[in-house]
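Re: that chain you flagged

S.,

Sorry for the slow reply, it's been a week of failed gels. I finally had a moment to sit down with the sequence you sent. For the record, here it is as I used it:
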Amino acid sequence: MAANKKKTPDFFKDESFDPIEVATGPSGPSGPGGPGRSQDQDFEGSSHNHAAGKAIKKLAVSRAVHKKKAGFYISVELLHRFNRKFYELKLAGAAIENKSALIELALAFALDDLDKGTKSRVLKNIL
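Prediction finished late last night. Pasting the structure tokens below so you have them in one place:
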């Protein structure tokens, strides 16, 4: 056996760094918005963005819930769009911890919309 067996990196290890956080500093009360800036102020000027900020805070409260890794196949175009939006939000100072939190939030919105029945925008795209 070789003494110096090459080890492959563990990409799912929690010790990785966030490139946006490295470039802009840590998020939170003393992060990009500076001390004393609330998360509601991260999305000034748009009622849609204000609602997104509130939803992100609501998701942060539910982080104590047990989570499980899930794998799904999506189009490459949608994946690129998702990644681009995630980094745009991070650069805008959104208090979103990671991509999992954003996808969880988006899925919750989609499921809430499906619960609307005939008024559901998602259901109209399916049928």
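What I noticed first: The two ends are 59 Å apart (CA to CA).

Talk soon,
D.
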